[in-house]
Amino acid sequence: VLGVFGFCLCTLCQNRIVQLGPRTGLRISHCSKGYGLYTDIAIETGQFVCEYAGEIIDITEAQRRSNLDNENYIFVINEHFSGDITTTVIDSTIIGNIGRYINHSCEPNCVIVPVRVDSLIPRLAIFAIKDIQCNEEITYHYGSEGSHSQNNLSEVKCLCESFSCNRFLPRKTGLF
User: Fold this and answer.
1) 78-118, pLDDT tens digit by residue?
2) Whole-angstrom Cα distance, residue 71 to residue 176?
3) Cα(176)–Cα(70) distance, rounded to whole angstroms?
4) Using an 8 Å Cβ cutoff, are 7 and 119 in contact?
5) Can you give the pTM of this predicted structure?
6) CA 41 → CA 25, 48, 67, 104, 136, distances in Å?
7) Is 39 helix (H, G, I), strand (E, B) or coil?
8) What is the rounded distance in angstroms from the CA atom of residue 73 to the CA atom of residue 65?
9) Helical H segments across the chain, by residue range
């Protein structure tokens, strides 16, 4: 059931989760990687954490911005539909939310799921893929499924310190 502004009015509807904004109990804290996103309350497997939000740009603009500033928050998602690839580029460098503070891990506790709410442009919802304890850092893997191989690693050192760390971050795919 949709309300006046297109928001779902169902109280138990799973689609409503993304529309309500980030969960409570998240905080940005300084860490060995610079800044990271942490939780002050336990998060169970499958629960919504927050959205990776920002400015929607095209690939040409993303390449231009990336060439200007190596320290950026450009997220590229490639979705496969019936043999076609749909690419969405979100830059949260200037316009964004707390999702931009989520660091990479080779053993992440979250995953990004594209969710559509009244638009063909996906919103990038971040969900826990394992139980996350109080004061634990929120992380996701910056690469795609195929980026775990040595051939898809960049020259940027990985700082995740996980047991199965690849030592380098995945290459940005679909953009460069």
Assistant:
1) 888 888 988 999 999 999 999 999 999 999 999 999 988 77
2) 15
3) 13
4) no
5) 0.83
6) 6, 13, 39, 21, 9
7) strand
8) 10
9) 16-19, 59-68
